[in-house]
Here is the input.
Amino acid sequence: MEEGPGYFQFDDIIEQLPGVYHAFALSTLGLVERLRESVDLRKATLVDICAGTGRCALTIAPAARHVYAVELQRGPSLFAHEQMKALGIGNLTYLRGDANRLPLRDRSVDHAVGMWGVVDSEEAERVVRPGGQVFLGGCAPGNMVGELSGMIGSLYGIPDDSPMADLFFGDSDQDHGVDEKGYHWNDFDYVADYGTPEEAARLLGRIYGPQVGHHLEEQNMSTVLWRLRLSSRSISA
Ligand SMILES: C[S@@+](CC[C@H](N)C(=O)[O-])C[C@H]1O[C@@H](n2cnc3c(N)ncnc32)[C@H](O)[C@@H]1O
Here is the structure.
């Protein structure tokens, strides 16, 4: 048994092994790429909610006026600070705070973003100025771990009636729609390229368990295909 956080324990993995999480989290770059196609970030002040190691915040900061990153845990916040220094980013402020009580005033930012986080959408909407947008990113049904989702769901025996089942085994015949909270969503494909099968196996093996790592090496896979979902809602006056 490997020392440290357990498999799938994302909040523990990101706290104790932020470098592993950061190298793994390439799907967030796919979500950010799509976000930047749909909104002009120049002159915009944003908040990145559940910012983690900064995959999103560090990527959008150079294109924006200012980014506030709200993150509960210390490990990923320290990691992000190191990245900010290394990349020379001076317009990103990490705030240790809770997504359910954002440390920001009402209507104080142009846009709010939350990638792969448990975001309270009403709280996100509270801090956005009228005319701005809230963007929430994650996966399409059946894509919790991209193309590996079905295999990993079966490996871990996720029951069909589990609340997680849709994330592992779900399917969708549409690529866009509007959800019950009025968020417009779009699904799209993104290939996360980990460089080599060994690196893909190291990262996903640490996060999802050694059998997943062995599978990637056996299949000689250095990439993982994800179907991602970006949702957005405009904030009116
Ligand atoms: C799966 S990570 C996503 C990180 C980043 N957004 C990305 O796409 O790479 C979720 C992050 O949310 C943080 N988190 C969990 N609960 C939180 C809360 N209530 N308030 C703020 N951050 C929280 C965790 O510490 C973790 O860093």
Remarks:
- Residues 53 and 227 are 22 Å apart (CA to CA).
- The mean pLDDT is 96.
- Residues 10-141+171-189+228-234 form a domain with the Rossmann fold fold (CATH 3.40.50.150).
- The chain has ten helices and eight strands.
